[in-house]
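Appendix B. Raw example, untouched.
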Amino acid sequence: MSFDAQAAPASSPLDLRDYWSVLRRNLWLIALTTVVAAVVGGLLGGGQKKSYSATATANFTAPPSASASGAAASFETQQTYAAAGAALLSSDQTLAAVKKDVHSKLSISQLRGKLSSTMNPQTYLVTITASDSSAKGAAALANAAVNETLNVSNQQARNQDARQAANYQNQLNGLKGSNKNQQTVSNLENQLSIAKNLAATATTGHVETPAQVPSSSSSGGPVQTAILGGVLGLIIGLIITGLREALDRRLGSSSDVAKELGIPTVGHIPEDTLGQQTLTQHGAAVVDDSKFEGFRILRANLEFLDPKSPPKSVVVTSALPEEGKTTVALSLALASAAAGRRTLLVECDLRRSALAKRLGTERGPGLVDFLDGRASPGQILRTLPIVVSGQASNNGAGADSTTPSDWVTAASHGDTGSGRPVLPSYDIPGLSGAEGTTTVSKPATSGQRRRRADVDGQVQIGNLTYIVGGSTSMRTAELLSSQGFQQFLEQVSDAYDLVVIDSCPLLPVADTLGIVPHADAVLMCLRASRTTRDQAHAAKAALDRFPQRPVGAVVTGVRDPSRETSYSYSYAYTRQS
């Protein structure tokens, strides 16, 4: 298994899981807009008066003409006549008749607002809709409107036929006493008879469907308006989520890191572990096992950055400050030492030293003092026992029912009789100062354990060797890029299984750029929902200037680490009575 820094392209298309991740991150926003809109809709629906709607349909047709040339009407004439009939509803003449029929006290303009008409272009049917505060009132208003519209249309057609009859009569009067135009007189008399008949009986349509009393309100009520408001709120929430994600330049998850930078994610660090001071008791680092699993995974994944040649020195950096790099460096070193590996933690963030405060020790002498020639290796190397709170278990126990709290490292330890182990020493070849060869405590391995009663209920699981930053210096970049630091790093890399270097952020200062060329691998910390894509790209661009080496991303400040992986798993010792 290996991690390929080019495995993921810098801009991959979003898949279904990415969309689900976006919705999950913004679930609170979508839920909030939906609930608020539903509540507002319910309040508006409960406060408005009920309204009922009723519809009636009429069939308008072109009436027969008294003219011999106009016996048949075309489709265009039918459509035009139906449209004219629909328009008649809004005329003052029609509305005045409707007002009289229903005995309404509303004005003509108010009545016009309660009525509407539409014409179906396929069937030429005109639909008239009326609204009222009562169901019976809406039906009565719709029926009155359709009847009066037809009445006005009929009257207009009859008036037109009456005018035509008068015209024929005038023509006949002009031909009286003449024997020259008997055929013309006969035709005019026939047309006059037809026109008079149409002027009395012509109809332009009929009621196709009368209005019925509606059984339910058309305004909906509070329940329906609340549902409509909730749907509208959901749509608004989704739109806001899309805009928010499009405008948000922050990295939100490990998938964002892979898509943007094309580097593998080797660890996820929870938000509640960042910036915390390491708990120390009686000169030992106490590991909180419940929060330490992420760093064990990080330590294991570090091996796979280059399986053929696992890194012996790793630089832990970030794009900007406050992204959790010191927490990652310290906890990674503790996890490595707890696994029985000879581990050295070196603080190279010399501008903002925090390691001494985290471990509750003195700030100097440290790395600056050694590189300036003011301190020997024996003065800067410090050892910190690592203990974990004892929890009883019979997991793997024999007949003597041993528990984790009964065992501590023993094979390489002596005992002073004080109840605290005495750590043996070994030499670091080549790393010598004024005092010659340096000796440091050797960490325990998993097979070097013995039973020991511990009143504190704690188990020692290893020892961490570390070097703090030391004195303040105005030329930190020069010290870290010097030949002396390069020789120091080579020597400790030969002596230790893993050297973890807590360095400065990449973008504000140049200190880390002097360290990277001499380290085997780089871990870049990116804080979720804080580090922007532009900052991450700038940090990676700074690393790309150097010869290619394994680079892994550590996503810090994760609120729910289980969501960053395909599964979550927890395991703990339990006491059995």
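End of appendix B.
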